[in-house]
Amino acid sequence: MRNKDFAFWLFLAPVLFALGTVVLLPLIYGIVYSFTDWDGVNAAEFIGVKNYIELFSDQSFLNSLWFTFKFSIASVIVINIMGLGLAMLVTSYIKSKNVLRTIFFMPNLIGGLILGFIWQFIFTKAFDAIGRATGIEWLQGWLSDSQTGFWGMVILMSWQMAGYIMIIYIAYLENVPKDLLEAAEIDGANPWQRFRNITFPLVMPAFTVSLFLTLSNAFKIYDQNLSLTNGGPFESTKMVAMDIVQTAFQLNQMAEAQAKAVIFFIIVAIISLTQVYVNKKKEVEM
Amino acid sequence: MKKSGKRWTLEIIGLLLALLWISPFYLMIANAFKTKREIFTNTLKLPETFTFDNFKQAFEELTFLQTFMNSMLVTVLSVAIILFFSAMAAYALSRNGSKLSNILFFVFVAAMLIPFQSVMIPLVSIFGKVNALNFYGLIFMYLGFGCSLSIFLYHGALKGISKSLDEAATIDGCNRFQTFWYIIFPLLKPISITVGILNVIWIWNDFLLPSLVISGDGTDTIPLKLFLFFGQYTKQWHLALAGLTISIIPVIIAYFFAQKQIIKGVSEGAVK
């Protein structure tokens, strides 16, 4: 198929048109709008970088950005430790491994909105009941302050994503040669040494994939945030994605919201491009 | 002897973790059968008397059959369109090999970096101006957002399909489209399943995009309806939990029948 072939363009036309009007055109419009005072209704006037400068004094945005960073880092650590642990468990020689895989992966199929609602019940009602029955005080009053709101989000996210990350680690763990591990065991290597010197280096590429996947997923989260805490109490658990949605569709400050959206895009792009760079670098080394 | 002892320890750890993992579902289902009062007095144990009233009311208020069909229609149509057009585009790109096709492929891959929230405001504005904030507009948007990853995955798979097949088909009198539709597309079936599964999971559960595009126009999908329902019954957990349980049942059934395919598809989509 040549460039001048009619068929080449005919085959590409539907997706080019869709991507162009749904993603690329809005992206360009969005960048332009972020330099105006557009409110969604009236004609926009160019105001330079005013929206961006105002972001630095927008406490709501700065708080949500900080909370999102903290949340992402905590989630990445917890999810990857849990994901790798679960993957090692279900690739060992136990009988129940297939059932376990099925169970651990299950939350990942259900929408974030639904999962958030379920956990809202667990944190506010079930935790409270356990706390009352056992007298453990810290189980009571979850989601009523920013501390428990934060950990509530991390627990929800980890429960949902650990099974997904487990699947990725499994794909790599199954490539670790069994005879190599057995040979090391016969030679007297203890489980930690076997993990450190054989499994870990071979699973290394999975870390890059999983770390960045969890990082960008955690950073972009919206549904779970909406249904678990709705940003509360007092907006202390509001994340960037939610801040953008609220600024745009509740406050109708379209241009300000779009400036936030551009910053959001830049951060997410940096995360993803770093991953591409790290992967490329590794390929060279190997 | 030592080995079997260790195995049993791992089996028990696995069992405990599995119980912990499904405990949220247990709490949801067990409490969905209780009365409003009993949820407060007995949150953790099984219900003393099972009542189906909650389910009946939630089912009616969610107009669940209608809502379920809306979700099905949006998902099936969107995914069918994504599969067909993405495979076609990936085929054209992979068989062209010119600089231009490399650039276009790069544009599709680069578009995967763009988060939804970065484009949603102008998107709603643009589509609002041409009166496309409706069911059909939504499906078209799913093609726009879904085509990048799909083309990327198809493009990878097409590298493994020899060009001599195309040539043979051309000699036998197939035109471009016939070659694609009768020869290439059937060979892409394994990757089509992967691409399909990834898109189904995403679109079925999607909330923000449909909430901006079709909310309240009678074609509400399950997440949209559930959000409204939940806002209405926020302090009435017996109804809210029954609604959540009903909403999850279709997913659990699908998972039960296709879990091998689903896990394989998700794994392939993530590792590539």
Outline the secondary-structure elements.
The complex is a heterodimer of chains A (286) and B (272).
Chain A lengths: L5 H28 L16 H6 L3 H32 L6 H9 L6 H23 L11 H28 L4 H9 L4 H29 L3 H6 L11 H10 L4 H32 L1
Helix pairs in contact in A: 3-4, 3-6, 3-8, 4-6, 6-8, 7-8, 8-11, 10-11
Chain B lengths: L1 H31 L3 H6 L11 H9 L2 H33 L2 H13 L4 H14 L5 H24 L4 H9 L4 H12 L1 H17 L2 H6 L8 H11 L4 H35 L1
Helix pairs in contact in B: 1-13, 3-13, 4-5, 4-7, 4-10, 5-7, 7-10, 8-9, 10-13, 12-13
Give structural attributes.
heterodimer; A: 286 residues; mainly alpha; MetI-like fold; globular; B: 272 residues; 2 domains; 13 helices; 81% helix
Provide the CATH superfamily of the largest domain in chain B: MetI-like
CATH architectural arrangement of the largest domain in chain B = Orthogonal Bundle
CATH class of the largest domain in chain B: Mainly Alpha
Radius of gyration of chain B using CA atoms only: 24 Å
Multimeric status of the protein:
heterodimer
Overall description:
The complex is a heterodimer of chains A (286) and B (272). With 286 residues, chain A is mostly helical. Chain A has one domain (58-285): MetI-like (MetI-like fold, Orthogonal Bundle). Chain A has helices at residues 6-33, 50-55, 59-90, 97-105, 112-134, 146-173, 178-186, 191-219, 223-228, 240-249, 254-285. With 272 residues, chain B is mostly helical. Chain B folds into two domains: 2-51, no CATH class; 58-271, MetI-like (MetI-like fold). Chain B is built from 13 helices and no strands. Chain B has helices spanning 2-32, 36-41, 53-61, 64-96, 99-111, 116-129, 135-158, 163-171, 176-187, 189-205, 208-213, 222-232, 237-271. The radius of gyration of chain B is 24 Å and the shape is globular. Chain B starts with a helix and ends with a helix.
